[in-house]
């Protein structure tokens, strides 16, 4: 099992972020592989790689991901999805994914992935979902054996450019009581609005399956509008560009005036969760309108204005990160303390695609864990 970094101490604190109970909402299965696992699985399926040892491969993927372009960032997934085409490969990746979440102190996670991308070696859509679920359950058992209680649900993802959204929505509903907790809409955001999949979203609404939509990352406010109206999104995947609908004007050294536009006001008033992923947002250029460093990220602006912000990794491999590391980076950039980090986790617990009673129990575990920190 990979272990999370053990030196992630929060600023001005003896608290190790790894020890804090955390909720992970936006974490891609094909973005969380261990480099060594990629090497071994690639050898089994005959996939050529750009490096032949784990350290070099991990470094190559991180460098290739740090391009400032979502399109270039997504190309690294050709490698990871390439080794996830067999039942054994899918099961192993899912099992290790859960092991790594547990090692990072995650107590509830939602793992998103696109079954349609894992069919090249003859598996059916249902078979790949079953293989991933078997791996998840094995990983949960491993964590339990190590004294850690974790719960993990699948978010079945439809790729917005592939025009299979209704088929994938039906797949998600078929497996809703066998590990699937919701539906995601991902891929090349710009040029592929949720309105193209309106039939799928209508179907999901009729079945009361919760939906999150990637929006406000590679495209702006119209993408967010489409996610809310056409996609009926209960959460926004990233959603960082909602800040384009917010204007701040400094009157003097002590006074700043903020004007919130109609889309941002709706997202705020309805407390629609934002699945923000700080390191990834820097890598893909999602925040280039505000700057190139973490201190420029609109995260703090959104938090201070009362938006329901959550902290996520997006792709742990591509960003060479963990959820604990993302919390430490935010604390260093914006001066957050434990009470702020607890708010982010409680926000995520409230946003989880779980029954109300389960979310309340999750919130209690978080509060108890932070109280002991």
UniProtKB/TrEMBL annotation:
Cofactor: Zn(2+)
GO biological process: adenosine catabolic process; hypoxanthine salvage; inosine biosynthetic process; nucleotide metabolic process
The UniProt record lists the keyword Metal-binding: yes
Every Adenosine deaminase domain range: 21-367
EC number: 3.5.4.4
Pfam name, any one: A_deaminase
GO cellular component, one term: cytosol
Keywords: Hydrolase, Metal-binding, Nucleotide metabolism, Zinc
Molecular functions (GO terms): adenosine deaminase activity; metal ion binding
InterPro entries associated with the record: A_deaminase_dom (IPR001365), Ado/ade_deaminase (IPR006330), Metal_Hydrolase (IPR032466)
Alphabetical list of NCBIfam families matching this protein: aden_deam, PRK09358.1-2
Stated family: Belongs to the metallo-dependent hydrolases superfamily. Adenosine and AMP deaminases family.
Protein name: adenosine deaminase
Organism: Diaminobutyricimonas aerilata
